[in-house]
Design brief:
18 helices; alpha+beta; extended; 7-stranded mixed beta sheet; 20 strands
Length: about 675
């Protein structure tokens, strides 16, 4: 065997040894990390919540150790470095091996080959490998033994700790129920800034919606089933026992636990995060001013059940009169409450800086939000206070009693509202589905058609007081009427603005009914302008107030032909079918207690779940009775309280008259 062959063989052996060395150390690191995590869960039970991360962390540690060791052995890819490594461990070679690799055609090649052949290169390689692999194997065996005696479930659920407690590997599942002596940890949502709460063996769990509920029990998780609202939950091993985790639902539910022939129901009672409340303290009342020169002190007080987020004042300024007006909104700087349950808002509003004119109205209100990040922030608004700038003509002493406005006023107001709805639909058209577009456009089209029919009733009013039948298939043809032919539509000839509004409304209805709100908007705006022109036309004023109809009571009294007779009636409460059903089920559950206590307890628990939303007082009394049953106490008083919560307090009715003596 030449020197080159010896180096090549040594390179292969050293590479295989380096890979084996790295794999053994990686295995030792992974197993050791699992054992350390298992022991740490005994000292700090809170670390057991992260049991699902043990395997990924161990795998990551193994990969890191393997990569580091293989990087340290990267020189094995070079034959020259392998030859130098052999020369370092066999000084007698005097660099003959390296020289033989570089100068194969040298005259001294034979002498160098002979010098290399006299040395035991293989023995040196295997000795070096043994020195590296023995410590690695020892570390892996020690880590495996440590994991074996740890409380981890890797080697059968508890290993040596379980056997020291008297249980053999064949009897891991205990004979009794594993659903007793449970520990429940309730972790509120982060935005509430509340600390977690631990409950010992509870019969009901009450927490804010969105909280995380962690249930722990003793024993192996094998055979334990859990579900909420018919949805199964995952039961895993953790800290020498079993655990499950669920999010607090938005409605009351029952957590069903089953262990072979044993079962248990835990009531899950969520309470929602209530929206905040805000009261506007200043200004205290509405005010009318002659001149817009006043600095208003704004003050409001806000409260929330968990924590306030932010708040500000909103000022709506309207200019104009009637249905022709413009509006603009001004807000004060936002105030942050930093999660406090109560807070106050204050600001100053200079009316002169708002550039108000005669007839302008300023509406002020306070707006507050809470810190709810799960279901969206709750919004609260206060009562509105208004400041109105009086007009100069309001102080005129001349008073005129005008006639009532034309019926078209209501149509103009409705048309303005429909235009706003159509503009919003066009704005949202790109973000909604086709079905939603058709639905919303059809609803606006139906409302627009009502306005069209109302205009038709006003426009085609007949002289005799009736109204002609409307053909819904097509709009009327006004050309013949306008040319002077005989027609009963006298009012239509004198109101071309109303007729134009009718035509535009008909075109808008057609576009909206086929889900095309964009083409309908020009027709809707044209109809509104025509309605405004008709509404602002010259009106007639009465010369006096119409007479009031006065009834002569002295003349008509006691002139009726029939005399009514009435009997006394006993007031009764309205029937409540849901409450009656709860009462029947409660009676059945109470009667079941002597025969089947477990079945009665299960029925009472389900009654509590159903009554949490409809009869909270009854549900609270049932919860006290369930706790009394589980702790082997007398449950008579809670059951009586539950009965009275459904049926009310007992009413004593009079019986026989007392004896007065004699025979």
């Amino acid at each position: 065997m030449t020197a080159s062959d010896r180096v090549r063989s040594a390179q292969r052996i050293l590479t295989a040894g380096a890979v084996t060395h790295a794999l053994v150390w990686a295995l030792a690191a992974a197993v050791g990390l699992l054992a350390i995590t298992a022991f740490a869960s005994l000292v700090a039970p809170a670390l057991a919540d992260g049991s699902r991360l043990e395997s990924p962390a161990a795998l990551a540690a193994a990969v890191i150790v393997f990569g580091v060791l293989m990087w340290r052995h990267r020189q094995l890819v070079s034959r020259q470095r392998v030859a130098l490594w052999i020369e370092e461990r066999i000084p007698e070679l005097h660099y003959s091996l390296v020289t033989a690799l570089d100068e194969k055609r040298s005259v001294f090649a034979d002498e160098m080959e002979t010098a290399v052949g006299r040395q035991d290169v293989g023995g040196v390689i295997f000795t070096a490998l043994r020195r590296r692999l023995v410590p690695a194997l020892g570390a892996a065996i020690a880590a495996a033994l440590l994991l074996y005696v740890s409380p981890s479930a890797t080697f059968g659920g508890g290993g040596l700790f379980r056997r020291l407690g008297g249980s053999s590997p064949a009897a891991i599942i205990p004979a009794g129920s594993r659903l007793q002596n449970l520990s429940v940890r309730v972790v509120p949502p982060p935005y509430t800034r509340q600390s977690s709460v631990t409950l010992d063996d509870p019969s009901s769990i009450s927490a804010i919606a969105g909280s995380r509920i962690i249930v722990r029990g003793k024993g192996t998780p094998a055979g334990i089933m859990a579900s909420v609202n018919a949805e199964p939950l995952r039961v895993t091993a953790s800290g020498g026992g079993w655990t499950l985790s669920l999010a607090m639902p938005s409605k009351p539910a029952a957590l069903n636990l089953a262990d072979r022939g044993y079962d248990r129901i835990i009531v899950v009672n969520p309470h929602a995060d209530a929206p905040p409340r805000v009261a506007l303290n200043s200004p205290p009342r509405d005010t009318t001013l002659r001149v817009a020169k006043l600095i208003v002190n704004l003050a409001a007080a806000a409260t929330d059940d968990i924590g306030l987020g932010m708040g500000y004042f909103e000022c709506l300024i309207t200019t104009g009169s009637g249905e022709i007006f413009t509006a603009r909104t001004v807000t004060t700087p936002i105030v942050t409450f930093d999660g406090s349950r109560s807070g106050s808002l204050s600001a100053k509003l200079d009316l002169a800086a708002l550039k108000l004119g005669q007839g302008d109205v300023v509406s002020i209100r306070a707006i507050v939000q809470d810190r709810n990040t799960l279901s969206g922030p709750g919004l609260a608004t206060s009562d509105t206070r208004t400041f109105r700038i009086a007009r100069a003509d309001e102080y005129d002493s001349v008073a005129v009693d005008p006639a009532g406005p034309l019926p078209v006023d209501s149509s103009a107001m409705s048309q303005r509202m429909l235009i706003l709805m159509a503009e919003k639909l066009v704005k949202d058209q790109k973000t909604i589905t086709r079905a939603e577009l058709v639905k919303r456009s059809g609803e606006i089209g139906d409302l627009e058609d009502r306005v069209r029919k109302r205009v038709h009733e006003i426009l085609f009013e007949i002289e005799g007081g009736g109204a002609e039948e409307e053909d819904a298939s097509a709009p009327p043809e006004p050309e013949k009427t306008l040319e002077g032919e005989e027609s009963d539509n006298v009012y239509a000839v004198q109101n071309p603005d109303l007729f134009q509004a009718y035509q535009e409304l008909w075109a808008a209805v057609r576009s909206l009914q086929i889900a095309e709100p964009q083409p309908a908007l020009p027709h809707m705006r044209a109809a509104l302008k025509a309605l405004d022109r008709a509404r602002l036309a010259n009106r007639l004023y009465l010369r006096g107030i119409p007479p009031k109809v006065i009834v002569d009571l002295a003349r008509v009294r006691m002139t009726g032909k029939e005399k009514g007779t009435a009997n006394s009636r006993t007031p009764g409460s309205a029937a409540d079918s849901a409450r009656a059903l709860l009462e029947r089920r409660f009676t059945s559950a109470v009667e079941l207690i002597p025969r089947n206590a477990a079945g009665a307890l299960r029925e009472l628990t389900m009654l509590q779940v159903e009554a949490l939303s409809t009869a909270p007082a009854f549900a609270g009394a049932i919860g006290e009775a369930i706790d009394a049953f589980r702790k082997s106490r007398d449950a008579t008083i809670p059951l009586l309280r539950a009965r009275r919560a459904l049926s009310g307090d007992p009413v004593a009715k009079p019986g026989l008259s007392p004896w007065t003596g004699g025979w």
